[in-house]
Amino acid sequence: MHTETLIHAKWIIPVEPHEVVLENHSLAIADNKIKAILPTAQAREEIDAEHIVELLNHALIPGLVNTHTHAAMSLFRGLADDLPLMTWLNDHIWPAEHKWVHEEFVADGTRLAIAEMLKSGTTCFNDMYFFPDITARVAQQIGMRSSVGLIVTDFPTAWADNAEHYIHKAVELHDALRNEPLISTCFAPHAPYTVSDQPLKQLVTLANELDVPIHMHIHETQDEINGSIEQYKKRPLERLKDLGLLSPSLIGVHMTQWTDDEMSHFARSNAHVVHCPESNLKLASGFCPVKQLQDHGINVALGTDGAASNNDLDMLGEMRTAALLAKGVAQDASALPAAQALRMATLNGAIALGLQEHIGTLEVGKEADVVAIDLGHINTLPVFNPLSHIVYAAGREQVSDVWIAGKRQIANGKHTTVDVQRIQTNCQQWQAKLSANQLSSD
Amino acid sequence: MHTETLIHAKWIIPVEPHEVVLENHSLAIADNKIKAILPTAQAREEIDAEHIVELLNHALIPGLVNTHTHAAMSLFRGLADDLPLMTWLNDHIWPAEHKWVHEEFVADGTRLAIAEMLKSGTTCFNDMYFFPDITARVAQQIGMRSSVGLIVTDFPTAWADNAEHYIHKAVELHDALRNEPLISTCFAPHAPYTVSDQPLKQLVTLANELDVPIHMHIHETQDEINGSIEQYKKRPLERLKDLGLLSPSLIGVHMTQWTDDEMSHFARSNAHVVHCPESNLKLASGFCPVKQLQDHGINVALGTDGAASNNDLDMLGEMRTAALLAKGVAQDASALPAAQALRMATLNGAIALGLQEHIGTLEVGKEADVVAIDLGHINTLPVFNPLSHIVYAAGREQVSDVWIAGKRQIANGKHTTVDVQRIQTNCQQWQAKLSANQLSSD
């Protein structure tokens, strides 16, 4: 058998079947896809390849799926910290966005974010931000897989004037991107408190027609619940249910607030949750009850949120925080064990995005989105269980290689398609501009 | 002025004064100590040095103080996960220790731990384990600063036969180490549930006589409280108070369980808490109420615990988890802000160990325990506030240089005194031995 790339790895952790760790196995890639997974001894005999990669202290895992980002906001990383959500938004982020968010900002911020994500093993991100056309273009140029959020709010921004205008641009962009191989789209109404009933109803219709998921911040904080009760006389989730949003198309991000009834309804609707543990902690938004959700059979994916409230886009770290925090919150050390945490960071994200036929596991026939993690570092020695180390001990710096649709994006820890130095210089320019502005507005 | 080493840094964060960030400053080292901190422009004119180190994208911080470790247990990293404390101890860790813990194990495990700690910016660790003489010797050989735990329990181990024997060896070792420049000691009675009244009373007397702190796991879980009420008809802290342990010499580790009265008493006693957030989460031990403790004026230091329940010894990561978790637990996004988290990981540890005259801040006259963190990585760009980035965004891989008592232990990300390859090989040998044993006992 002839193939393009053949990777010999110490371990392969395919995620499906669950908890399986294959030792001394190899993975063959051709035509962007996984062609074979087999014992290395057999692979060395039977397969010849154009590129052979020897990763003899490494584990291969499916590329990580960051199911909630605001990529361009990486340029606001560390702009304002140690503040609650609404102060952070009203006094810092929204004024900064009002002043700075335009096409160049989104292009440069997205490029920075993708560079960071690739380096730490993320191969697909589900974004929500203004100028999603730019996000899509930058991701495409680099070769990053993305689910681009077709953003909708009631409020005017540099991207659109009002809900109708946002929706018009959303449908237009969906259409323009429909045949791009690495790009999918989600409708992305920002949150219940920023989008009114009419546009939400319209999005339900469009989502059904076009078979596109709806990606939305929901029940992030108790304040959001209180505001909704005041304005609509119901909790946000109830309102969304009444508007027809509660369906398998819904990707509800954060979801720290639940009644028992809401959890049952949500489970029956087959909607998805994206858990963002570090952002929830940092903004003191509340604890998402991950174990309870999983016990209800709800699909829980994982996201970092934007780097302005995290302050990184490191899914390995996020997976670790998720696994640790779930135990603390459930008061149960067996909650969210390592294999389940890895599944959350890969397959569950793919399922939420409707991409599970293509990505999320290492299985023959799927797209070759593959990440290699070097477990030979002193940080992860000795190795009794590589799955445990990937969740509880390995750091982003141990990601050695990353393939997306078979293309090697990171090789031996170095970017192959991103000009890191150009990004560093560009960030310093933005830093100077934004700092000057901060000083002048103090 | 002539000096041995002169470091030109983009930023110096001395920790004392609080929240201060000095830009374009330099730090001069001679005779193991910090000789000067001054603007770089002035330093370039006035100081000549044998070694000049240019760190133009870097922040200098005081060396991190890991105030609770079981260093040798790094060889058990990932041996058993996703289990609650008592199952983990009774069914996995204690049997493994019974079989494996001897001098060679402690030497090799400690060497692994120190290599990991140095690389991630820790310059002092406060340890508790069997064969503390070996821990001290290995730390000394490498040039790592350590506070060695003079362990005491009621139970026989390869190190000692009974409490009396432990105490005898403790006093002997204290005496042997008293003039070692990089070593201090703590009495280390394991926990209220493993040490009976008589040896605890004896330790109080000895601690007073010898002016040595007492380092002890206390109130780690609700189970511990229940057990104590059953056995002693009082909560552990009340029992320790009655035995005379509640004093400025006491370093209480974990402390997830508190009554209001306990907190007030603890505060008045000027005893110290070591917070181990990741271990507490992983074992679902409970949440340490850090903000409340700090509001009571209690000195809270930070520790990783052993790598068997963490599963790393990364104090940068621990600081981040502490800062994030404190906000979630206090439901207050301003709880444990970045500057306070860094103080906890440096000066507060030094205070708990009674070493604040020597380490914990970057101040002229203190020992030169200095860590450089490269903030020019894409993970930490742009930089609006280096203090925020060190806590919320920088990873251990961004630690570029580490000095302990003026000796450069890490230079450009590489160990200077530790043979990493030898440690890797040695770990693989332990991995084979321990794995074989696990399989045979299954």
Structural class of chain A, please? Answer: alpha/beta
Backbone shape of chain A: globular
Provide the spatial order of strands within the biggest beta sheet of chain A: 3-2-1-4-13-14-15-16
The average pLDDT value of chain A, as a whole number, equals 96
Radius of gyration of chain A: 21 Å
Structure notes:
With 442 residues, chain A is an alpha/beta fold. Chain A folds into two domains: 2-62 and 363-411, Urease, subunit C, domain 1 (Roll), CATH 2.30.40.10; 64-352, Metal-dependent hydrolases (TIM Barrel). Helices cover 40% and strands 24% of the residues of chain A. Chain A has an eight-stranded mixed β-sheet with strand order 3-2-1-4-13-14-15-16, covered by helices on one side. In chain A, strands 5-6-7-8 form a four-stranded parallel β-sheet. The model of chain A has no long low-confidence stretch (mean pLDDT 96). The interface between A and B is large, with 68 and 68 residues.
SSE blueprint:
The structure is a homodimer of 442-residue chains.
Chain A: E1 2-12, E2 22-30, E3 33-39, H1 40-46, E4 48-62, E5 64-69, H2 85-100, H3 103-119, E6 122-127, H4 132-142, E7 145-152, H5 163-177, E8 183-189, H6 197-210, E9 214-218, H7 222-232, H8 236-242, E10 250-254, H9 260-269, E11 272-275, H10 277-282, H11 290-295, E12 299-302, H12 315-330, H13 338-344, H14 347-352, E13 370-374, H15 386-392, E14 399-404, E15 407-411, E16 414-415, H16 420-441
Parallel strand pairs in A: 1-4, 5-6, 6-7, 7-8, 9-10, 10-11, 11-12
Antiparallel strand pairs in A: 1-2, 2-3, 4-13, 13-14, 14-15, 15-16
Helix pairs in contact in A: 3-4, 3-16, 12-13, 13-15
